[in-house]
Structures are given as C-alpha cells and as structure tokens.
Amino acid sequence: MPRNRALPAAAVAALALAACGGDTPSVLDPSSDAGRRVEGLWWVLFWISAVVVAVVTGFLLAAMRRRRAAREAGDGDGEGEGEGDGAAGAAGAGDVDTRPVPWGDPFVVLAGVVVPGGILAVTFVFSLGVLGDLVDPPEDPALEVEVVGHTWWWEVRYPNGAVTANEIRIPAGESVELVLTSADVIHSFWVPELQVKKDNIPGRANRMWIMADQAGRFRGQCAEFCGLQHAHMELEVVAMPPDEFEDWMADEAEPAAEPQTTEARDGSEIFTTASCAGCHTIRGTSADGTLGPDLTHLADRQTIGAGLVPLTPEDLAGFIADAQDLKPGATMPPTELSPQEVDAVVAYLMGLE
Amino acid sequence: MATTVVSDAPPRPATTVERLEDDWAETPGLGSWVGTVDHKRIGLRYLYTGMAFFVAGGIESLLIRTQLAGPDLDVLGPEAYNQLFSMHGVTMMFLFAMPVLSGFGNFFVPLMVGARDMAFPRLNAFGYWVLLAAGIFLYSSFLVGRAPDAGWFNYVPLAGEAFTPDINIDFYAIGLIFLGISSTAGAINFIVTILKLRAPGMILNRIPVFVWGELAMALQIVFALPALTLASVLLELDRKFGFHFYDPGEGGDPVLWQHLFWIFGHPEVYIVALPGFGIASAIIPTWVRRPLVGYTYVVIGELAVALIGFGVWVHHMFTVGLPNIPVGFISLASFTVAIPSSIQVFAWLATLIAGRPILRTPLLFVLGFIFIFVVGGVTGVMFAAVPFDQAVHDSYFVVAHMHYVLVGSAVFPIFGALYHWGPKMTGRLLDERWGKVSFWLMFVGFNLAFFPQHLLGLFGMPRRVYSYDGDLGWDAYNLASSIGAFILALGILVTIANWFWAKARGEPAGNDPWRGETLEWYASSPPAPYNFVTVPTVRSREPMWDQPELAFGAQAPEDGGRPLTGGHLTLSTSMLDARPQAIVHMPHASIWPLLFSLALLALAYSVLLELWPLTAGAVVACGASVMGWFWPRGQTQET
Fold first, then answer.
1. CB distance A348 to A267 below 8 Å
2. pLDDT at residue A8 above 60?
3. Gap between the Cα atoms of B541 and B559, Å rounded
4. In terms of CA atoms, which chain B residue is nearest residue A35?
C-alpha cells in the first residue's frame, strides 16, 4: 500500500499548485484577513491530520509485514458439514495466542485517549480563538449592504437606495456589513476568498462582515441547496478603490438613463407596456415589478442570469426570448415578444449604464 | 398451531437432534415462505433487499458522476439530477446501510449470544415486511416521475408546499415515517434479545463487540428516530393541512426542521457506523489469532460514541447564524466524539500488532476500512473547528468527508463481513482471489472517487450542483472522481458475482472455516432452524477458543449444554450476569406480520394520494391485523 503514504504528499503538491490558480475561488488563496485566519487554521488542521493518518498507516503497514502464510488459516475444512462436526476447528485452534497483551490496555489509553485528547484540546482552543477573531471586523463598518437571496439570484440593496443584482460592489480595504435575508427558500452566501459562509434564511436577518484587501473580483456561489437552479446562483464581489466606489454607489442610486436611439426608445416603450415591467424595476420609469432583478443600471453588470452568461446583446436577447432554455426552472417565462421587439428591448437595456 | 400434542401423532423421536428437527422444521411452501419468523431467513432477506437497494443507489450515483464528469454536461437535467441525488442519499442511508447492518445483526446476534431466535420473532418478520413495503413505496415515486427532490436532508421551506407543491416530498415524509416503524421494531427486538436472551454465563463483559455495536445502534435508533418522525409529521401537517409549523410568514420557523432533522441525522451517522465498527472488532481477532486488545475500552468507546453522538447535531448548522455560545459547546462535543473513535482505532491497531495477521479478504476489507475511516475521521475533526467548518460547509469537502466516514465504516466492513460470515450464512466459501480483486478495485476506486473531492471543496465547489463552469479549475478533479466511481462500482460487482457464484458452486464451508472465537461458529453452516443442538453455557469472552467442548457443535449436558426440546424454546437469562431465569416459548410462523405491513402500505398510499375513505379502511385493516396477530390461541401467547 505505498499509495497510502503518497497521499498526503500528493495532497500538499496539489494544494500548492491550486493555491496560485487564477480563476479558482479557493479557500486557500484568500484575499482578506478573515480568509487568511481560516487558511492558517486549515494548515494547522491539515498537518495534524497528515501526521495522524501517517501514524495509522504506519501501524497498518507494520501489521501487514507481520502477516503469516494463508495456509495457516486453511482453505476451509472442506468436509466439515453438519452439526457435531467441528473437529478441524478444534485441531487448528492451537495457533491462537490467548495470552494477555501486557502493553495492550496502557497503549490503548495512551494512543486512544491521552494523546488525541491533548491534541484535540489544543486544537479546540486554537479554533475558538479564530472564531472569536472573526466575530468583529477590525473597525466598525461604515457601510451596510442588504443581500437578499431569491430563487435563483441575489438582490443587493445599498443604504442610499441603489439596488442591483448578483454583483456586490464594495470599497476595497474597508469592512462592510452584510445583512443576509431571503425572499423565498434558504440560500447561503459564500465567497471563498473573502470570508466564511452564512445562510440567507427567510424570516431572519443574518449579519456578517466582509473586507477585501484590494480591488478585484471575487467569485461566490449559493452554497445551500435551493432547488432546480441552485447550480446557477452565482455572485461576484467587486472590490473597488474607495473613491471610485463612492462615485459608483451615487450613480447607481440615480434613475435610469434615458434611451438615446429610436430603437431604444421603442424598447423602453415595449418594456413598460409588455409583461417585463410586471417583474422588473427600472427606476425613473413606470416599471416597478419586484419579482425579478432591478434592471436600472443593467449595462454596468458583467453577467446575466446570476453568472450564467456574459452580458452581451446576443445572450441578453436569447435570455429574454427563452430564459427556460438557458436556465430551466427560472421564474422568467418565455417571451411573447417578436424577435424585432426583443432586439428593441435589448437595445434599450444595453443602454442602461 | 403451538403445542397441543394430538393423540395420533407419531411417537417422539429418540435423539436430541431428531427432536429438534421435529420441533423447528418449517414445512416448505408458500405459507412458511411468507410466514417465517426464523431470524436467519429474515436476516438474509434484509441482506438481499438492502443489497438490491445498494445497487439502485449505486446506479443513481453513477448517473450523478456521469453528469458531473465534465463541465456543463447535459446528461441529466436539473430535475432528474435533484431527484437522483436525493434518492441516492435516502437509499444509501435508509434502504441500504440500515437494512444490511440489521440483516447481519438479525442473522448473527442470536447466534453470537447463544439464543435460538430473536426475542420477538414475529415483530422481527414485521420489521422486514415494513422495510420492504416502505422501500417499494419510496421507489414507486420514480414510476410517476416524482421522486423526492429536496435532498435526504429535505430542508424547508424548499420542501414545503409553497415551493414543492407536487407529491415528491410527500413520498419522502410518509416514506420515512413508514420506515421508522421498521427500524424501531427492529431496534427494540435487538435490545431485548441482547439483554435477555444471552446464553448462561455470557456476563456483560463477555458479550462480543459486534453485539455491543448492534446494541449501541439499537439504543440510538430508539432515541433518535422520534425526532425524524416528528419532523416528518409536522411537515405533512404543513403540506396537507396548512399548519405552518415551518412557515416564517405565519410565525413558523424553517430552522426548527433543521434542529429536528439533525438531532436524528447526526446519530444516524453513528447508527450506520457503530455496527460497522463492531464488524471490524469481530473480524480482526479471528484473522490475527489473538483476542481483541482493550475490550473494555472498545465497548466503552462504542457506547460513548452513541451517547456523545446526541450532542453534536448543531455542527451541521454552523452557518445558520446561531449564537456563538451554543456553537462553542457543540464544537467541543464534536472534538470530544473523536476520542472514543480513536480508542477503537488504536485497539484494532494494537490487536493487529499483537497478533499475526492472515491477509485474506475479510481482513483486507477491515484494514481498508481503518485507513478510510481515519481519513474521514480527521476531516471530521476539522469540521468541529467552527471557522473551518463555516468555510467549507456545503462544499464538496463535506461530500468527500462523509463518504470517507460512511463508505469507510459501513460499506467496507459490510463487504468484509460478506466474505467472513457469508460461509456461515450460505454454507459456501466465496472465492478468495476474486475477493482480493474486488477489494483492490474498491479501495483504489473509492480513493480516486472521493479524495479529489476534498480539493474541489477547498477550491470553492458547492454540493448538490447539477452543473459547473469549465473555467474554475474543477474539471480534472471531477473527471478523476467520476472514473473512480466506476472503478468502485466494478469492484462491488465482482463481490456480488462472487457471492452468487459461491452460493451455487462454492466449496462447502464447514462449521468453522476460520476457527473463529465467538458462538456463531458453534452452529452448522448454514445453521439449522434451531441454531444449536444445545444452548451452550459460556465461560469465556472467546468461547470457541477457550472451551474445546464447543467445537463439536453440541455442548454436552455435563458441560452445561441445554437441549431444550419440546417446542420453540430458548433460554432467558438475567441482564447483567446471564443467570438462567426462564425457558421462553417462541412463536411459530405467522401470516399476520405481512398482512399488517400491507395494511400500513395501503395507509401510506392513501395519505399520499389523500384518498381519505381508503385511509379509514386502511386504519381498520391495521387494527384488524393487530387483533388477528394477538388473537388468543390456546395456552401459548405468541408475539
């Protein structure tokens, strides 16, 4: 069983390799103090575990080296059928060693209770320390953002009235308080590179803080199974330089941009009169539905469908035409608009910067 | 039926064996087939039924791994995927692991404690029929394309009527209430059998560790299962009658489900693991030719796991946002539960080192189990560390961990037991070479399937997703995992084929092919309906090693053997020191347990489909079958 010994080594190699992977949202490649605390805890746990597994494997290999020839176990005593016939068993019981094992009980107590008890106690105290450190941010958050889980997208609300979806913009280097709730079933907010996760539970408001070291985009995904499209409920935390963030947040609270072309104006008209407006809000227009994401500044986002596809005119048109095709089970029904009308709506939406 | 001797009956046979044959023989035929209360036939039925569901759950897992072999695959849609992963979990926990471990318990607990049957043979038959009926009930959901689809954990509000209005979840909730009847009946039977029917002299500290494992499992079932039943009943009240127990909009609380489910659900892990530990403790001494080192500590360890296992449920809920004080205490309990497990691991290792191992298939599976279980154990300790748990909770790291624990502590010991005890059950030896092939395929396949999932979890892949993007660095690990799953499945198939080949053409095993230490080897292979010619008196923890007179299968009366002829008789002894107290008349075959379970099946379907007149009829049928079961017949009261 040499492969057993190779496993921890292979694990370390693989982990080291992946920790520098670019797009992988890895717990082992943190971009925050909280993430680094958890990563540090992981490596403590990992090395203790590796030693334990190595010791046990060593015992197993040592035992296997002491094996005896299989013939001593016999290939069964072929003819020993029927009750009253067990003579072969009696004759062969001689190889059994029933003498007490003098070191047995002390060994079990030492290796089974004392040593692990000590290791576990130290680990427990250490992990409690990390838990305590994660309770409060280094400084009180100046900004509070509400993140509402929906099947299957994230609504993001800022204190100044700005509302967006699936992209959570925060100022880099500053702690931000998140208030996690849900509009329907239980979801779970998880951005592996920034913080541990916490659930969005209907009827409750969970709080957690996040902070990113520097500007960057950090992928996250719903972690609690929430139905058909649980797999496509992604989000992105976008950390921006603080002054850029302030500008963005102020702009984001503004009403939607007026359509600039004839086609876009047609699209605007169609949007507000067709069924779109029943579910989507575009601030500054009569569209004020709340079932789907707020689209006031849709063109600023990078993806649609909660990370499903990049925001391009083609994909947006496809999504409007038949969201069920891209995201089966999503709340948005296939459209009754003609292809020309869809194009007009796309032209309008792509202008909402 | 019971004991009246008719005047023109043939004269009583002369020898003890002939008399026992006369007392216990079951007339072959349909009546005996559906009515049997023989714990060995019932045990085999549990085993075969559980293995059939194992194959079903395995096919589900292969479909899942096929869908996940690469990014953005379209083998299964989300609806099919969700049904398959939900039923995979339900199947493997409730329809494979528990029945198969109960099957070994049913077959071997009476043999190992020196009894002639379980304490309540008809209740035993009833438990099996209910399991079969509940399994059919749950799987009939596939026929209408409405299998449970909210996971085996079935969280509300997703599982509530508002978000899953169809009957998928009703199959789940009613099915589990139904199954709980079977598990509870079986558990009570184990407890009473182990405490009251042990052979004279089998004082507490001579009980085989496997029997202790089944006892710990049974005690956990009795105390844990009511929480699941309650949770499911509340859910059905919500779904069918608008009770809003779990509805936050009406003052209910979805977190209530999570508490109730995990108060059951975490002990459930140990319900599946403890008998597996017991199997390891049964196999190792035989194959290293040395008594188990640290017996007392191992037994205390098993019972301590069973006890502490009730105090760790919140570690499934560390991301719910519960206050930090209870979270800290549950974290402490979760660290603590590692100690009784490590006692057992080091007792096994000490026994292996103290003895001289014979590396045949049963022991190989146990060595594989120890390695896999320890890997699963150390990652389990990681989850006790709250911040790390919160980081990888609901990620593939958990999938890896719990398969290491559950496949490690249930599947590998079960497969070891098929080779170790199969010869006792069928009378035939399995093929050793194919056994080794099966082991290595399973061991390599398992580690290839599940080790990479640790990394997937650390790299941010959540559980229960039917699809994933190709640009996240997850592809290679998923592909490796899928390949490993198929290798594992191949290894499993080899053993299944080996079993049926052995049944048909295997070499006869003889009473005691491995020269084992406990009383199951005192019986013939397969055991006669009455198990032993004489109920033995036990003077050792390893009676077959220390009492040479037992090797002949019929301890003589001067050595303490009791023939107990003249009916279905076994001996009842005192709980602590196993002093003989009474001779118990055991019941004969009966059709009523089957009829009662059919009435329950009708009840389950009637509630599922809301056919209330049928419900009323089914309730009456249940009552009638209980009355039939207990109707006084002559002098012996038969339960």
1. yes
2. no
3. 17
4. B391
Element (H, E) at B276: helix B254-288
Tell me which chain A residues have a C-beta less than 8 angstroms from the C-beta of B517. 96
Q: Counting beta carbons within 10 angstroms of the beta carbon of residue A115, is it exposed (0 to 12), middle (13 to 18) or buried (19 or more)? A: middle
CA distance A214 to chain B (A): 20
Q: Which of B211, B215, B199, B346 is nearest to B279 (CA)?
A: B211
| H-helix segments, B68-151 | 78-90, 98-113, 121-143
Cα–Cα dist A353/A262, whole Å:
17
Task: Indicate the SS3 state at residue B608.
Answer: helix
Q: Which residues of A touch B358 (CB under 8 A)?
A: 67-68, 70, 72-73
Q: Two tokens at B226?
A: 């009511």
Q: Which of residues 69-128 of A touch B (CB under 8 A)?
A: 70, 72-90, 92-93, 95-98, 101, 103-105, 107-109, 111-113, 116-117, 120-121, 123-124, 126-128
CA B159/CA B163 separation, integer angstroms: 7
For residue A174, count other CB atoms closer than 10 A to its CB. Answer: 18
pLDDT of A128 above 90: yes
Amino acid at B4: T
Residue type, B238: D
The pLDDT of residue A84 is above 90 = no
The answer to whether B110 and B117 have CB atoms below 8 angstroms apart is yes
How is residue A81 written in tokens?
């059928």
**DSSP letter string, B296-332:** HHHHHHHHHHHHHGGG-GGGG-TTS---HHHHHHHHH
For B343, which of A24, A81, A112 is closest by C-beta distance?
A112
pLDDT tens-place string over residues B176-229: 999 999 999 999 999 999 999 999 999 999 999 999 999 999 999 999 999 999
Q: Do A130 and B387 touch (CB under 8 A)?
A: yes
Residue B491 has pLDDT above 80, yes or no: yes
What count of other Cβ atoms lies within 10 Å of the Cβ of residue B330? 21
**How do residues A194-233 score in pLDDT, each as one tens digit?**
989 999 999 999 999 999 999 999 999 999 999 999 999 9
Neighbours of A325 (CB within 10 A): 11
| Dist. CA A144–CA A142, nearest whole Å | 7
pLDDT digits (tens, 9 = 90+) for B59-109: 999 999 999 999 999 999 999 999 999 999 999 999 999 999 999 999 999
Determine contact: B253 vs chain A, CB below 8 A.
Answer: yes
Residues from chain A contacting residue B455 (CB–CB below 8 Å) = 11, 14-15, 18
Residue B636 is predicted with a pLDDT of 55
* B436 and chain A in contact, CB less than 8 A: no
- The average confidence (pLDDT) of chain A is 88
Does A174 have pLDDT greater than 60? yes
AA identity, residue B536 = P
Which chain A residue's Cα is nearest to B469? A308
Which 8-state DSSP code applies to residue B92?
Answer: I
Cβ B367–A63 below 8 Å, yes or no? yes
Closest CA to B254 of A208, A149, A154: A149
Q: Are A293 and A318 in contact (CB under 8 A)?
A: no
